[in-house]
Amino acid sequence: MADASVRARIQRFGSYLSGMIMPNIGAFIAWGLITALFIPDGWFPNETLGSLVGPMITYLLPLLIGFTGGRLVYDFRGGVLGAIATMGVIVGAEIPMFLGAMIMGPLAGFAMKVIDGWFQHRIRVGFEMLYNNFSAGILGAFLAGIAVFFVGPIVNALTNTLADGVEVIVNLGLLPLASILIEPAKILFLNNAINHGILSPLGVEQAADAGKSILFLLETNPGPGLGVLLAFSVFGKGVSKASAPGAAIIQFLGGIHEIYFPYVLMKPILLLAVIAGGMSGVFTFTVFNAGLPATPSPGSIFALLALTPQGNYLGVISGVVVAALVSFLVASVVLKTSKAEEEDLAAAAGRMEEMKGKKSDATGYLTPKPAKEVVGMTSGDRVEEDNTQPVNAAPVKNATDIHKVVFACDAGMGSSAMGASLLRNKFKKENIDIPVSNTAINQLPEDADIVVTHKDLTDRAKAKLPNAEHISVENFMNSPEYDKLARRLKNE
Amino acid sequence: MAKDVLSKDNIKLNVPLTGKEEAIRFTGEILVNGGYVDAGYIDKMFEREEMASTYMGNFLAIPHGTEDAKKNVFETGISVVTVPEGIDFGGGNLAKIFIGIAGKGNEHLEILSNIAIVCSEEENIEKILNARSEEEILDLFSEVG
After folding, report:
1. Which of A24, A126, A258, B104 has its CA 20 to 30 A from that of A224?
2. ipTM of the assembly?
3. Would you call B114 and A125 a contact, using CB atoms and an 8 Å cutoff?
């Protein structure tokens, strides 16, 4: 039993990571395309378009990740906080901060959630907007400010450790082992220090003597990344599967390695695949005594081959192929086993939901969204009957499972706002500590536990959020349902 | 200069209206004449009414546009119309107080929330229907909070 819950927790963490990355894959691809095409070493060098490259990877991608991460924890409000806090790590570090965003985003969302938990119900009616905006602003400014100071030293310490490690390994002549440090460093964007600080100077020295150096191949080998992307193309699912082939082209032919980083970040165990691929690639290079006279840039297969000296083609090509193959095999095993597990989990989560009637964060990614939404009921569809009883096919939840009540109407501008104020007022009188908000049906938040709608709109709300408990009311001003709900939640 | 969401000019007391359609149109026209919405908004109010009744209970109805009608809204505004005799608002509901709403942002939520709390007490409904001046209504709705 304990085993299953640990596994579920790990799975849940995993789906969290991919939840942060997956929705933003399109942005990575856009960046990869622009980079492959327009940088000075690209296919159609163009200074104007190339100027997009830096800001996109420094700001756009981490901010998107930070926003998405915060949003996963605490809806839109959490997302905004996540983006603000991520700005702190971006400015504080000199490298693109994907990992920093993946930490700060959810953290900031969570901080907002905690603070709202303390204060939101104490805010007097009418001051909600003021509280919402200023609490978010103050907390965001604070988090971003803290991050600016803390992230720099952390990144430096990490970089120096990795660089020292690589130096020791290179000096000992155990080159394949260097991949253990180089591959994770690449994904965290810490590879520049290793390249420029250690590998390049040593490589230039060797190349001056021997005309070539294997050190130029350690980090630029596109094989390991290609293997991971190919594995996703075959064994991945959903967005990751569909986008991986295109990403592979950008990475392998265009030499933009960064494009495979998100795939590894959303399943960190895939580090094993790139490390194994990197090691076997380096080992193959060593066996063939392959080397390049200079650093290929970007690390595309074309750049590699263009620099390969006569007689080294077999070695270089073999190293790339072996690396890709090994990485592909390891990644495939990882994806296949975790896929089976995820399917189990999706089924298990489904059963759990039925029993508890509660939608957990993790299951949001494991179960497909309802494809059909009932839109625009016309008067013809409307059943004219005085059915005042709530029609509740959806489960009734335990009081302890309820953290958020949302009133919804078509536009979110009228009835739901009035209903929400009344229930909020009622909760306040009864000392019930559950936030009540209002929204348009189309913007119903995923994490709403109870959705209250006018009886004519309940079907639409159910189509939008099938796993929430739905309460149908006819009289928004004076519904017996409010008292019923208050009584139910008070008795917890 | 930004207009008040609810001003004296937006309140009409004891209006001799007889039908649901007339009531919605009258409530909407106050918003049109006040420069809060364009004339197309009234059609959207009827559309919204078709979708689901805006009758809230306690003799209160809050006619407003659909979600896509937000483009017809210049500025957020609220109108108040009282019809003490009551109007059949469909489904056997008798409406006596009509709150017309045109929401662009969220500025109206504060006052709407006050209106909700005021109107949830039946004695306040009586007070509104017996009001002699627009100021009384303004006072009632701004007193809570």
Report:
1. A24
2. 0.71
3. yes
